[in-house]
Amino acid sequence: MTSTIDLVAHRHSTAEHELRDEVRQFLGDQRAAGAFRPRCDAWMTAADPAFSRLLGSRGWVGMTLPGRYGGHDRTPLERFVVVEELLAAGAPVAAHWIADRQMAPSILRNGTEAQRQRYLPGIVKGECFFAIGMSEPDAGSDLAAVRTRAVETPRGWEITGTKLWTTGAHFAHAIVVLARTDGTPGDRHTGLSQFVVDLPHQAVEIRPIVTIDGEHHFNEVVFDRAVVPADALLGDRGAGWRQVIAELGHERSGPERFLSTFPLLEAWAAQTSDDPVAAREVGRLTARAWTLRQLSLAVAADLAAGRSPEVAAALVKDLGSRFEGDVVETVRRVAGAEPRRGADGLAGLLADGVLHSPAFTLRGGTNEVLRSVVARGLGVR
Amino acid sequence: MSDELHEEIRAAVGAILKGRDSQDDFDRSLWKDLCDTGFHLLGVPEEIGGSGGGLRDLAVVVDLLAFHGARVPVAESAFLAGWLLARAGLSIPDGVVVASIDQARVHRRDGLRLSGRVRTPWGRHAGHVVTTAHDGNVVVSPVSAVERQENLAGEPRDVVVLDNVEVTAVAPVGVEPDEILHRGALVRAVQLAGAARAVLASARRHVAQREQFGRPLARFQAVQQHLAALAAEVTAMRVSADAAVLAVEASDRGAAIAVAAAKATTSAGAHVVAGIGHQLHGALGYSAEHALGAATTRLWSWREEFGNESYWHDRLAAAEGSVWSVVTGGDR
Ligand SMILES: Cc1cc2nc3c(=O)[nH]c(=O)nc-3n(C[C@H](O)[C@H](O)[C@H](O)COP(=O)(O)OP(=O)(O)OC[C@H]3O[C@@H](n4cnc5c(N)ncnc54)[C@H](O)[C@@H]3O)c2cc1C
After folding, report:
1. Which SUPFAM superfamilies does the protein's record reference (chain B) (predicted)?
2. What is the largest CA-CA distance in chain B?
3. I want to staple A350 with a disulfide (CB 3.0 to 4.6 A). Which of A144, A339, B134, B151 is the partner?
């Protein structure tokens, strides 16, 4: 087998175990105090700035950042433990999710010192939220087809274009935008750059898009000759594609790619013990979750060791996102419960699960595209 | 498992395996080479006559033998019999020694005698069988009478008939049937992952070489998607088996859960892997001439042994605590 998919199982350190106990205790207390109700897909849909700030005060946001930016110098594997506990509990982490997962490491790696000083301390406090402006009307799977343009002017960069499906832009303090600075759309991967644009901005219009669950999670974001300072450029001019690809390792491999519906599984399992058919299905999903967790952890360990397991991350996301749908279908089929939006308990979780299931295998790169990445990694493309 | 030592083991065993083409149910010449190099008893303590080394070292060998469809009983000898003997503090008899799957009955008449019919993979080729008695104690006995049976892959899955046989050794040490079941499940998980890897390797080769419609199959996106799904399942099987070996070697608190989850995952994965593997190979892979069948028939056999996926799903469902606490397995 090629080295690209050579994942190695990881064993936790004592520090990681202790951290897990601490987070579990905290979440148990929070739930008992009514601070949150477990939800499916909470990392995308349950934004609660107060909860994000509380996590920040516990040191559980931007954990891996260096102390000089307010961070906690924790390892990526310690971060893994914290976020998987939050996800399994269905805690409301959507507000700071993108900032913590993606923008903190990206700004640390690519940003200027001024950008780091500007954004990182706020991220760590759980107070600075981000959105990702990559997709466009004509650039979905084919992301290199983006048309949004940034033109250098004496006043700074002038950005024009439309971003689509932008999760959380309506509450974000900043959006990272992939735009063409040089050449034409036919140039594909060259000539793209990333910008950090503070929100709200008077020339950036954020229009809500309601999804089939009747809620507002993502947006259309229209840049109408929006002028941003020269230092809004993130990383090198023309290096946007490379930077985005590097981010994908973080974006695709995390435990949110198999745990989105875990709160539903947990709630169901708690009430199935004397039904042998249901119990066997719980056992099946438990085994699968155990394995997916080992895979996700192995990718995290690889990332932590400084490698960039792009192919492995794609492979794990393909398996994990299918599992998320499998949980929903299994509970629905076996429990015979009718999903009800907004209801307490199983009916409400099931409604979330059913209505969100199309998203699992689309967002962050569709499964077909992920499999193409894997096929390329196997050397057959 | 990619440390330097494991790479060395892989390279050395790989060299031994090169160019073998035995059609017998037991590849004696391979077995002899493994014995001469000590790889047949890796992971078994030197004090009882093994080659020393850890469980992960042995797992590397077992994985590789499964990958090659090698017809030798290292799983049954080192992984199972060697482990039972080490637990009991008994030394390893000369010749081929394998473990039985069932228990036998011990009774006393002119010394210790053993009776029973015990399912024993590779029994026909074994000089001794290690079994546990009804009281749980570990017993070694010579193999004389055997009823021959095979699994779907043609591997010996015999019944050793013990009719008042004088035992070679007995230890006053008990091993619970459930421990043996877990140990067997672990080795089959490793083997299943190894055979699955063979299917993937063969599929990659095949779609690159075989041409239809004027181009290699690998050029077709439908084929690429199949191959990626195959690679995903194979990787899941391999990482789950790896993680279980790691947990058992370290005697983690979550070791039993890890074994259950790994055997469930590898057993369930067998269907996916064999299915896609055969689809990609076309009729060629269905022919007994092609090596694919050696891997897929092993997948279909090994998934049933020491508990299939449903068995382990039930066990996992019955485990203490929340699903999440089981999934995180507490590896301390
Ligand atoms: C809930 C949700 C949140 C999102 N949040 C964000 C966000 O915050 N920021 C952002 O930038 N984007 C976001 N997206 C957009 C997401 O990245 C895109 O949906 C995704 O990249 C796919 O693009 P598309 O929707 O245009 O589908 P298309 O690319 O049009 O694909 C449609 C279908 O065609 C298939 N297809 C396309 N190309 C190929 C190919 N080459 N081979 C085989 N099959 C192919 C796809 O797999 C899919 O099945 C979000 C999407 C969702 C669903």
Report:
1. Acyl-CoA dehydrogenase C-terminal domain-like, Acyl-CoA dehydrogenase NM domain-like
2. 76
3. A339
pLDDT at site A308: 81
Sequence-separated (6 or more) residues with CB below 8 Å from residue B91:
B48, B49, B85, B169
Average pLDDT for B287-306: 96
Full domain range(s) for residue A323: 254-377
Domain count for chain A: 3
Q: Does the pLDDT of residue B332 top 70, yes or no?
A: no
Q: Supply the pLDDT for residue A2.
A: 42
Nearest to B224 among A17, A283, A371 (CB): A371
Terminal CA-to-CA distance of chain A, rounded, Å? Answer: 16
Single out the residue in A128, A145, A168 at which a domain terminates: A128
Please identify, by atom number, the ligand 1 atom nearest to the C-alpha of residue A98. Answer: 8
pLDDT at residue A5, rounded to an integer = 72
Question: Which tens digits make up the pLDDT trace of B222-231?
Answer: 999 999 999 9
- Residue A4 has a pLDDT of 45
- Whether B324 and chain A come into contact, CB under 8 Å, resolves to yes
Whether residue A24 lies inside any domain: the answer is yes
Distance from CA of B28 to the nearest CA of A (A): 28
Low-confidence ranges of chain A (pLDDT < 70): 1-4
